[in-house]
Amino acid sequence: MAEKYLPNYTVDDYLQWEGDWELIEGVPFAMAPSPLAVHQRVSFLIANQIEGQLEECPKDCKVYLELDWIVSENTVVRPDVVVVCGKVEDFIKTTPKVIFEVVSRSTAIRDEQLKFELYEKEKVKYYGLVYPNLKKMRVFKLTNNRYEKIFDSDRGSFRFDLECPFTVNLEQLWRRI
């Protein structure tokens, strides 16, 4: 019964809100409190590793931190780290090639389930879940319209095969947090 009474907001509503929110299929999700220092540090270090490798990319692939992706008229998410190939103006409006979410206790269900399903449905090629407390990364690749786990480790490196490939080195990441 409660489902039929849930609010159903749009991007236009979202753009008027104060504070940090995501909007998934018309339902708002608060993003407070702000991410902790380790979360911010991990996001930055991942983006920093990627940025250096994309400098010479002829496909105009770029890495962004916490930039809104307008998925549809009623869905806007703000991934921690995204790689997009092509022009981006104020917001991301095309499907990113790679998304990383830095998982904490307060975001685990949303990152591992809700966003997992959303990113899979929207055909994001790679989805990386990064666990600072475990010093671990899991990577899923879209294969036949379904995510398949292709990496699950606390060490080593993973190469993302795109138009402009890049690698995330976990030893380097964990050493610097």
The DSSP helix count reads: 4
The tally of structural domains comes to 1
Provide the CATH top-level class.
Alpha Beta
- Measured as a percent range, the helix fraction is 10-25%
Q: Which class of secondary structure composition applies to the elements? A: alpha+beta
Can you tell me the CATH topology? Answer: tt1808, chain A
Strand order of the largest sheet: 3-6-7-8-9-10
Query: So, CATH architecture?
Result: Alpha-Beta Complex
Question: Which stretches are poorly predicted, pLDDT < 50 over at least 5 residues?
Answer: none
Work out the radius of gyration. Answer: 16 Å
List keywords for this structure.
24% helix; alpha+beta; single chain; 177 residues; two-stranded antiparallel sheet; 34% strand; 4 helices; tt1808, chain A; globular; 12 strands; six-stranded mixed sheet
3D structure, described in words:
The protein has a single domain (33-176), classed as Alpha-Beta Complex (tt1808, chain A). The strands form four sheets. The protein has a six-stranded mixed beta sheet with strand order 3-6-7-8-9-10, with helices on both faces. A two-stranded antiparallel ribbon has the order 1-2. It starts with 10 loop residues before the first helix and ends with a helix. It has 177 residues and is of the alpha+beta class. The protein has helices at residues 11-14, 37-54, 108-121, 170-176, and strands spanning 21-24, 27-30, 61-65, 69-72, 75-77, 81-85, 98-102, 126-131, 136-143, 146-153, 157-160, 166-169. 26% of the residues are buried.
